[in-house]
Design brief:
The protein is an all-alpha fold. The chain is built from five helices and no strands.
Length: about 100
């Protein structure tokens, strides 16, 4: 009976831990795509053939651009900061929920 309880606890712990890094990576892709178009539109027009007046799915086109693999700019830094802040927030929320659930 203890092994089943331990397995169930481990299963739920893994399920609680997964959303934070998954959402953080998705958010990083979206934010990086949007920021690089907003901050450095000339780079996007030159190397990726993306105009900043395109539709709302511009971040999809931006993250598929191979020239961004070597891009070093404010958009990369800022998207990393936003991703880290979102991950910290998600981990805090899941930790608080875990602590209060075990009491």
């Amino acid at each position: 009976d203890r092994s089943i309880e331990g397995a169930r606890f481990s299963y739920h712990a893994v399920l609680r831990a997964l959303p934070a890094p998954i959402f953080a990576q998705i958010l990083h892709l979206i934010v990086f795509g949007e920021l690089v178009v907003a901050i450095d539109p000339s780079f996007m027009e030159t190397y990726c053939d993306i105009n900043s007046s395109t539709t709302s799915t511009i971040w999809l086109k931006a993250i598929r651009c191979e020239a961004l693999a070597e891009y070093e700019g404010d958009a990369r830094y800022l998207s990393g900061v936003i991703m880290l802040a979102e991950m910290i927030f998600c981990v805090l929320i899941s930790s608080v929920g875990f602590v209060f659930r075990t009491k």
